[in-house]
Amino acid sequence: VNGSIEIPVVVNVLYRTAAENISLAQIQSQIDVLNADFNASNSDYNLVPSIFSGVKANVGITFVLDQVIRKSTTKTSWGTRDAMKKTKSGGLNPTSPTTKLNLWVCTIGGGILGYAQFPGGSSATDGVVVDSKYVGVTSNTGPSYPYNLGRTATHEVGHWLNLRHIWGDTTCGSDLVADTPTHNTANYGVPAYPHYSTCSGTPIEMTMNYMDYTDDRGMYMFTTGQKTRMDALFLSGGARFSFAQ
Ligand code: ZN
Ligand code: CA
Asked: Peptidase M43 pregnancy-associated plasma-A domain: which residues (predicted)?
């Protein structure tokens, strides 16, 4: 917390094709995005609308590439039931999951960009999964556009650090964070500002929050309330206290 949390990242690459065997440069570009986004040094942070300037936050968590483990496989897609996290199902078991963030890079399938395990679950499956096509920064015109700026991992690491979707996964639901407005539902694309909620009080929605579902270029902030929720994990008794040691 307060810039003192440093999280080693183990990247587990499962590949069948050459494209799935992403380069070290591609992986490092993802680590760089995580560091920018979690330290408010992303180049689009200045786009945060002024009505949110009082709540926009520098989370202050640093990510360090620890190691890259690569494994060739014959699987064409891995699904969302953790097969990639188990050596016995052809994947790779996590490395030191109570002290390192494990990131699995593989083809998930079904149009899924990524998924994460919330804090408090089994360490054997702890970590985040991001489809190989959406890891790191890629060209503006390539097949991974509009998810080409590494924000899938930012969003998934947000879940790994206990953040809920900003719309609370139901109509006008709660994300358990007080300083984020209530959203009707998920937003997609890059909504024009201001986008008003029809929920109680008709607030302007914070569509540029990493925990919405907008395109990568449409998301560029966390809030103080989200930071507080993440920070709590690293305190004594918190679900990720082992990462703070
Ligand atoms: Zn999500
Ligand atoms: Ca909220």
From this structure: 115-232
**How high is the ipTM of this complex?**
0.93
Cβ atoms of 209 and 39 within 8 Å: the answer is no
Q: Which two tokens stand for residue 201?
A: 């009080």
Residue 115 near residue 146 (C-beta atoms within 8 A):
no
Closest by alpha carbon to 223, among 169, 191, 177, 176?
177
Instruction: Indicate which ligand has the atom closest to the C-alpha of 200.
Output: 2
pTM of the predicted model, to two decimals? 0.97
Nearest to 241 by CA among 161, 163, 124, 127: 161
pLDDT, tens only, 59-104? 999 999 999 999 999 999 999 999 999 999 999 999 999 999 999 9
Q: What are 98's two structure tokens? A: 């109570």
